[in-house]
Amino acid sequence: MKKLEATFPVDGQLMMVLPRAAASLKNPDMQLPILRSDADGYYLEMRVEADPKDTSELTVIRRVPLENLSAEEWEDLKTEYANLDVSVCANQGVSKGLEKIQDRKIQRLFMALMTFLNPRQVSIVLYLYKLAAHQGNGPIVTFRSNDLLTILGYTRTKDGGFASKLRSQLNRDLVALHRTELVMAQSFKKGNQNMGAKVMIKSVLRIKDYEIDNVPRDFDLSKAADYTYELADAYTISLEFFDGPARTGDCVLWADSIDITQKLGSNAKSDYKTKLLVYLASRMKWDAPQDGHSVIISKPYLFKNLDLLGSNSSRNNQIFWRTVEELKQEGYLLGAQELPSKNKLVSVQFQINSEKLKCS
């Protein structure tokens, strides 16, 4: 008898919203970043608008609350905001578009918001759900930074540590996942009556505690994310989307063998494998296929969610089918084929290996 592969649960609600929450600047549904103030405080936020043609393409706001901001700092922020070149960010890269912003903290805040839930951060989140299942403390997860950097596939330096750039990047990733709030409206219907909408505000995770090893140094979590190149030696976090694993059973089960190794020398945004895998998992939750593993998605939605938005359709196709082949080789896909269509809107049918990825 074939031994079943070990799995870990990821919250179903998070999986449904993840591709939208992670939408990039190039996504046609994404609005420009804005500064907003209300009675509760100041915010830096981006909104991805709903696509009325597909229920899975829902509205999500991602925002960073700007805490303890004086009126003078708010004015400084507005001045720096005027230096943001969004078209350069979208076409030449976020770093390039932020070059005219002088203040490092403001520069990093924009960077964190505009690159939020990039494939590297998504990989970290999936790994933390795997740790949660193994540690058995509900949504609370404890890990050592060097262990996570090793799992991500980074190479140690001669002294046995990791380069300061990699350490800094990990702290900024964790602080971005901690700081950035997702705001979603959910409609509840009973029969044909609309029973109103509930607004949910959640971070992907919250950092509860951190530890510094026996080294006499001051470490400030926010300061490290905003200004320096530091990383704590260990973190304790709480996964904020945890109703599925803890209470309702609404989850997506992922294979324990998931590989989150980052390709050396490549940018996280070009990790199409992670993007496609997460989008397929999300669509499984939305579409609830009767056989549990066949999903049909139109190519325009696939390309939009993979960030294949350039005008070179030949290149887009090449990257897409190469990514499909990668997922076949890793055992996530049993098959994928284009379906003929009368209206020229080509769709792709995926057969997902339920031993690697399935809804519960």
Say how many strands there are.
14
The helix/strand class is: alpha+beta
The side-by-side strand order for the widest beta sheet comes to 2-3-4-6-7
Indicate the percent of residues in helices.
25-40%
Shape from CA axes? globular
- Output the radius of gyration: 21 Å
Average pLDDT figure: 89
Total domains: 3
- The biggest beta sheet, please? 5 strands, antiparallel
Count of alpha/pi helices: 13
Sketch the topology as an H/E string, one letter per element.
EHEEEHHHHHEHHEEEHEHEHEHHEEE
Query: In percent, how much strand structure appears in the residues?
Result: 25-35%
Written account of the structure:
Helices cover 38% and strands 25% of the residues. It is an alpha+beta fold and 360 residues long. The chain has three domains: 1-12 and 116-264, no CATH class; 23-115, no CATH class; 271-360, Arc Repressor Mutant, subunit A (Orthogonal Bundle), CATH 1.10.10.10. The strands form four sheets. The protein has a five-stranded antiparallel sheet. A three-stranded antiparallel sheet has the order 1-10-14. Strand 12 (333-339) and strand 13 (347-352) form a beta hairpin. It is globular, with a radius of gyration of 21 Å. Mean pLDDT is 89; it is low at 188-196.
Task: Provide tags for this entry.
single chain, 360 residues, alpha+beta, Arc Repressor Mutant, subunit A, 3 domains, five-stranded antiparallel beta sheet, three-stranded antiparallel beta sheet, 13 helices, 14 strands, 38% helix, 25% strand
